[in-house]
Amino acid sequence: VLNNRPNNFSDETIARIIRIAHDNDYHPNGIAKSLATRKSHTIGIIVPDISNTFFSESVKSLQLELDKKGYAVLLCSSEEKFANDYKYIKLLAARQVDGLILTVAAETMANNNWVQIKDLLASLKLPTVLYDRYYPGVEPKVYVDNKQGAYELTQYLLENGHTDIGLITGPLDLISAQGRLAGVNLALQEAGLTLKPEHVINANYDIESGRQGAKQLLGNVSAIFAFNDLQAYGVMDAAREMNMVIPRDVSLVGFDDIFYSAVLDMRLTTVSQPIKEMAKELCFLMIKAIEDDEPISNEISIPGKLVRRDSVAKFRSING
Asked: Which of 123, 143, 217, 275 is found 20 to 30 A from 59 (Cα to Cα)?
C-alpha cells in the first residue's frame, strides 16, 4: 500500500494503513526497497569539474529532468583526473545506481586511458550515457556540434575583417577541442587562410589558461577565440592588466554561453550550448537504457547557437 503497488485491500483498509503510518511517522526504507526491487531509482553523474559553470548548470538541468522521472542523483567531480573517473565509477556501482551519466576527465582521454574506463563499464554492465566528451565506440552520447559552432564563430570574425586570429584551445585529447579546432580550420580554409602555429595556444578549460594564453597573443592578433567562456574571462583579465580594451584593441569570442557571459560589463560573443535540451535528451536515453534493459547506441548531436554581443568589433588597421 505504502509503495503504491496494486493490491486487493479495501479502501477502508488502505485508509487505515496510511493513517497508522502517518501517526507513527513511518517512512519506507529506501535501501530495503532497492534490495527488493533491484532498483535504487538513483542515477550517478560524474563531471570533470563542478566549479566549471557549464557543468554545474548541466547538473542542475539533469537533476530537474531526472526528478520528473522519479530518480535522485549522486554527483561526483573528477577534478579532470583519470584515477578519479575510475574510482567514482566503481563507487557509484557499489552504491547500486541504476545508471551513469559520464563526462570523462581530460586525463582519461590522454594516453588511451579511456580504454580502461570502457572495459570497466562493460564489466559492471552499468547503463551509461556519455555527455559532452566521449571516446570511440557505440556508447550512447549527447553533445553539441562543436565543429559547426566554431565554424560559425570564425566566420563571424572573418566577416568583421579579422584574419589574424589567435586561439586558446582546450586539451586536444578531448573531442570538444578537436571539433572546435576543425571548425576554425574549415572556415579559414574556405577564406584562403591558415592558422599561424605561434597563434595557437594549447591550454586547459579554465580562467588561468585564458589569462596566460592571452599574454602570449595580445598585441600579435586582432581577435582571440577562447575555446570556452572561462578562458575568455581570463583573456579579459589579462587585457585589463595590459591596458588594452576589448573590443577596441582586440576582439574576443568564447564558447558555452554560461551565465556570466551575458551580464559582464563586456558582454561576450560566444556559442550557446543548449544545456536544457541536451539534459532532456540525456535523460531520455538514460531512462530508455534502464527501463528497456537493453543496450542502446544512440548518438545525439545538437547544434549550438551563435550569440552576438559586444566583444567583437570591425577590424581597424593601424592606419585606420
From this structure: 123
Convert the pLDDT of each residue in 203-237 to its tens digit.
999 999 999 999 999 999 999 999 999 999 999 99
d(CA 172, CA 185): 14
Do 7 and 98 belong together in one domain? Answer: no
Range 89-94 average pLDDT: 97
| Domain assignment of residue 311, yes or no | no
What are the pLDDT digits (tens) for 94-147? 999 999 999 999 999 999 999 999 999 999 999 999 999 999 988 999 999 999
* Dist CA 288 CA 196 (whole Å): 46
Q: Residue 64: what are its φ and ψ, rounded to 5°?
A: -65, -45
In a domain, 80, yes or no: yes
C-alpha cell at 187: 572556415
Instruction: State the total domains in the chain.
Output: 3
Question: Under the phi-then-psi rule, with left for phi > 0, alpha for psi from -120 to 50, and beta for the rest, what region is 181?
Answer: alpha
What contacts 108, CB < 8 A, 6 or more positions away?
A: 78, 82, 85, 114, 117, 135
Using only C-alpha atoms, the chain has a radius of gyration, in whole angstroms, of: 24
Domain annotation covers residue 165: yes
Contacts of 87 (CB under 8 A, 6+ apart): none
